[in-house]
Structure formats: C-alpha cells, structure tokens
Amino acid sequence: MSNKRQAADTAFQNRIYDNAMMQRVRQIRTDGHYLYHKAQTPAGQNEADIDGRRLLLLGSTNYLGLAQDPRVVEAASRASEKYGTSCTSSRLLTGTRPVHEELETRLAHFLGKEAALVFTTGYLANIGAIPALIGRHDGAYFDAEVHACILDGVMLSGAERYRIRHNNVEDLSARLAGSEHERKLVLIDSIYSLAGDVAPLEQIVDVADKHGAWVMLDDAHGCGVLGPQGRGLAHATGMTDRIPVIMGVFSKCFASTGGFVAGSADLIDHLRFNARSFLFSNALAPGQAAAALASLDILIAEPEIAERACALGDRARQALRSMGWRCGGDGTQMVPILLGNDALAFKVTMALADAGVLVSPAVNPGVPKGKDLLRITFPPTLTEAGFCRALEAFQTVSTRFPEALTGAGESAMSAA
Questions:
Q1: CATH of the domain at 377
Q2: Which of 26, 91, 139, 214 is least enclosed by beta carbons within 10 angstroms?
Q3: Looking at the whole model, is its pTM more than 0.90?
C-alpha cells in the first residue's frame, strides 16, 4: 500500500470514526441510553414489540392511526397484486401507473389546486421542487425552524439564503423589503415539528404579497388534521388561492410513504421536467400510492377522525401540564414535551420505555441546542385504557425527574 493510500485511509477513518456525531453516539451507547434503530414489530393498533417487550407506541407520526387500518392495508395489497411491488422505473419513463394519476387528481381536488405531483418521499419533494423554482440569482426566505429537507433544498438551489426568526412576521417583512431579487420564495411549515406551533399564515401571505414573493407551504404535519376534512392550514385560514405552492407527505396522516406538491397546472408540468429528484428517482410503489389514496378516501368520508386527533392532543396536553410537564402544540395533534437538555431527554425516554411507553426524543442536530424535546402523539385509535395507561407512565416518570417539570403539578387523572 502506497504512502498516499495510507494517508487517504487515515483521512477517511477520521471522517468515519472520529467525527463529533460518532463520538456522541459512542457516548450514548456507553451511558446505556442508545435507543435508535430498534426493530419494531407492530402488535395491534397502537403497540409494538421491541426486544421482546410490548410497548405503547406514542412516538410515531401515524397521526390518524390509519397505518394498520384494514381498509388501507387491503388497498395496498390489491394494488401490489395488480401492478407488482415496484414500478422499476422513473415516472418519466415507464414508472407511471393509473394509481399515481388517480392519487394526483384526487389530491389536487382535495387541496383546491389545479394539479399535483407525487414524489417517492417527502424529502425528495422538497429537495426537488425548491431548486426547480429558485436559483443562484434568487432569494430563499425560510423560517428558522423549518424541516431539514427545506434547508437542503435551499442549499441545492444556490439561492441567497435569508434565515427568518421563528414565526416572526416583522423579521420576514424586513428581509423581503431589503432585497431586490427577481424571484423571492418564502418557505414555511404549517405546524412546526419542534414546539408544535402553527405558522401565522395569513400575516405571512400578506407580507409576501406586499413584497412580491411567493409562499411555499410545507403542510407535512397539517394536511390531514387541520381545516375542514383535514384539508390543511391553507384551507383552515382561507389562504388556498393565495399560496402558489403546497407541499405535503403521506407518512403522517396518509398511512404510507411519499410526498407531493400541489399548485397550478403549469407549475406541476414544470416540476415534471425540472425537479431532479422526481426525474431521477424510481416511482412510488403502487401499494404505497394505493394506501395513500385509501387514507384520503377515509379522511373525506370520516372527517371526525381529524377532529378527534386534535381533541385528544388537547386532552393529553391538559393532563400532562397538570403533572408539570412543559407541552407545546396547542390546538394540534402534536404534543411535544420540552426538556431543553439532550441527556435528560434520553433518560426520560428510557424511563418511559421501562414504564411501557415508547416516545421519540428530538435532540441536536434535529433541534437547536437547548431545545431538546420528546415528540409524542395520541392517535384517535388509542383506546381509553391505552390513554390512561400512557398518562400513568408519565405520572410515574415525573416523580423520578423533577428537573424536567415546570412545577410540582397536580394529579393528571382528574384532568383527564
């Protein structure tokens, strides 16, 4: 082996082994707090078997509890039998199936747009659509807490980047007023996955219109739960006609994988040929498209499901706050518990697992330092017994970690 090859090996090993992330992973494993990449076997509607234990699953984004719904499972199975398990091609070439076109047509109608385009994942939707809309002479104005895929899409676009203070309309207005780009794209989430708060959409759209900017709304966490029949934040605020680009995913409320962008027919036709992540990715599997379509049918026929999801979130928040936990996400299905310390987040997560409840910790770099939290959802398919079981676990854990609480709290059972 040459000296240059040995030097290359050392450089790559440093990158692989000695980077800050891997040092941190090793420390978490040493501390006994490592809980990632665990194989889970679904056991009933809201439980999973993990390492031989059956846990109540509250850490997923199965917001409406449809992932094990027999109607959705059957639709996916039928589509797989009819079209096969994979399209084995991009949509541009031989990968388009009738179920893709039906899903896109139905989505566009559901969202009040002329057309929609389905991507293989939500991540691919954002990193494909954003660079197809703006380039290096344009401006990207993004909320400080948008999802990572928006940040990656902005970086891929080469546009000048403007980081806006979270949900701060005044900061957005000042940034837009101070730049003269031909194209200005404002990028926001509907519900932010950190603290669970909702964007002030009407004010943002007013400011964007005033300064000649487009708004792209990432409705990943809102589509399916907010607004009439779960049609999303744009419908809930009456802003549909004033938002040119709406993005969403199937992995939250639609019991599937994949993502989509909805807008004008011209916009969608442009993305078909200019969104590289669409052009050069294998098409969404037919079974996944059919699962999303079946979930959409259920949502339209049974809008009370979305209402129950948000109502149960509010009920859980009230109970958890009475124990002293700091919760965000008012009025939504998301119940983030704010801890502010990654070590504490890991300890509380492990303690909850010991008490029979599985939640998801969100720590840096997934969240900014000091904003570490637990991501929790209470799907509407959760039984009353399951709901009470979850609260009992949180009550038990709260006594072990008083540093995680805002105060002594009251009994949660009375609030529930």
A1: 3.90.1150.10
A2: 26
A3: yes
